[in-house]
Amino acid sequence: MSDKTETAAPDRERADLKLRTRWLHTAATLTEALPYMRRYADRSFVVKYGGHAMGDEAAAQSFARDIVLLKQVGINPIVVHGGGPQIGKMLERLAIKSSFVDGLRVTDQAAVEVVEMVLAGSINKQIVGAINAAGGNAIGLSGKDGPLIRARKLARTKRDPDSNIEKVLDLGFVGEPESVDPRILYLFERSDFIPVIAPIGIGEDGHTYNINADTAAGAIAAAMRASRLLLLTDVAGVLDGDKKLIDRMTATQARAMIADGTIYGGMIPKIETCLDAVDKGVEAAVILDGRTPHALLLETFTEHGAGTMIERETPAA
Ligand SMILES: Nc1ncnc2c1ncn2[C@@H]1O[C@H](COP(=O)(O)OP(=O)(O)O)[C@@H](O)[C@H]1O
Ligand SMILES: CC(=O)N[C@@H](CCC(=O)OP(=O)(O)O)C(=O)O
C-alpha cells in the first residue's frame, strides 16, 4: 500500500512535466508562426484541392480545419476544387464514355451535365459541409455564379507524328478561362465567409464549360493577385530524376525538366499553371501533398515549408 503511494507521486510529476512540455511546445509553435501570420494578414491564398488529394474522411477533415485556421488568423483562403476521379466514377455508373487528351477530359453534352452535377453539386457541398463542421462559414459557388469565370472553348492542336501536320482536336465542352471577374471574391475578403469554387465556366454562347481545376485556380489567383497559389495533389511535390523532392524551382528549371521528360502527364498542366500565375503577379505557387496531415499549415507557418515552390525568375543583374 505504502509502496503504491510512493510510486504514484513521481508518476504524477512525470505526467505533469510531460503536459507542461507539450504546452511549451505549443506556445513555441505559435510564436514561430507569428511572423508568418503578420506577413500574410489580409492576403489571399488560392488553394486548389484536387480530387485525388480528397482521399479519406480524416484527410478531408484535416484540410477543412486548416482552411478554417487560415481564415481565423486573417488570411483570405479561396478554395477551388477538382473531382476528376469522382466524375469518372459517376460517368461509369451512367455508362457515359469519356477519354482524356493531355490530361483533359473530352467532354460532350451528356458528360458536361454530369461534370456540373458532380463538381458544383455533390463535391462542392461535401467541402462546404466539412469546412462548416470544422467551425468555418463556407459558401459554395461555381464559376457560373457572378459570373466569376467567363470561359471560351479550349483550342487544342496536336502534330500528327506520321504526316507532321498540325491537327485541331475537338475536346467538346472543355473550356479555358477567358476572363475572371473577382468582384464577388472581394466581398468574401471583408467577411467571415470562405468561398469554395467548382471549376465550371459560362461561355458567350451560353454553354457550360468544363475547366481543369488547376487552370481555374491559377486564373483566380492571378485575378486576385494572390499571395500564394497552393495546389494540393497526391505526390510530395515535384520530384527530380532520382525521385527526390525539389523544394524550390525557377521557370527555367521547370521548362528544362518538362523538355527532358522528368516532368510529365498531369504534372505538366500543374507546372504551366504555376508559371503562368507567377508571371501574372502571384507571389509564389506551391505544389504540395494534400494527403499529408496539415500540409497547408506546414507550408504557410513554418520556415521549412512543404512541397515544391515555383518562383518568379529574378532578372539577371
Ligand atoms: N516530376 C514529377 N514529380 C512528381 N509527380 C510527377 C512528375 N511528373 C509527373 N508526375 C505525375 O503527376 C501526378 C500529379 O498530377 P495529377 O494526377 O493530374 O494530379 P491531380 O489529380 O491532383 O490534379 C503525380 O501523381 C505523378 O504521377
Ligand atoms: C477539362 C477537365 O479535364 N476537367 C476536369 C475537372 C475536374 C478536375 O480538374 O479535377 P482534378 O483536379 O481532381 O483532376 C475533369 O473533368 O476531370
Offer a concise description of the structure:
This protein is an alpha/beta fold and 317 residues long. The protein folds into two domains: 40 residues; 270 residues, Carbamate kinase (3-Layer(aba) Sandwich).
Q: How far apart are the first and last residues' alpha carbons, in Å?
A: 78 Å
Annotated CATH architecture of the largest domain: 3-Layer(aba) Sandwich
Number of structural domains: 2
Strand content: 15-25%
The mean pLDDT is 91
CATH fold description of the largest domain: Carbamate kinase
Unreliable sequence segments: none
CATH superfamily of the largest domain: Acetylglutamate kinase-like
Order of helices and strands: HEHHEHEEHEEEEEHEEEHEEHHEHE
Number of strands: 16
> How do the strands line up in the largest sheet?
5-10-2-1-13-15-16-14
Structural class: alpha/beta
* Global shape: globular
How much helix, percentage-wise, in residues? 40-55%
Radius of gyration: 22 Å
Query: Would you state the CATH class of the largest domain?
Result: Alpha Beta
How would you describe this protein?
This protein has 317 residues and is of the alpha/beta class. The protein has two domains: 40 residues; 270 residues, Acetylglutamate kinase-like (Carbamate kinase, 3-Layer(aba) Sandwich), CATH 3.40.1160.10. 44% of the residues lie in helices and 23% in strands. Strands 5-10-2-1-13-15-16-14 form an eight-stranded mixed beta sheet, sandwiched between helices. It has a four-stranded mixed beta sheet with strand order 9-6-11-12. Helix 3 packs across helix 5 and helix 4 crosses helix 5. The mean pLDDT is 91. The structure holds adenosine-5'-diphosphate (ADP) and N-acetyl-L-glutamyl 5-phosphate.
